[in-house]
Amino acid sequence: MPTYDFTLNGQSVTVEAPADMPLLWVLRDKLGITGPKYGCGVGVCRACTCHLDGAAFAACQLNMGDLPPGASVTTIEGLATNGVLHPVQQAWIDCDVAQCGFCQAGQIMAAAALLASKPRPTDSDIDTIENVCRCGSYFRIRQAIKKAAGV
Ligand code: FES
Ligand code: FES
Question: Where is the 2Fe-2S ferredoxin-type domain (predicted)?
Answer without folding.
Answer: 2-79
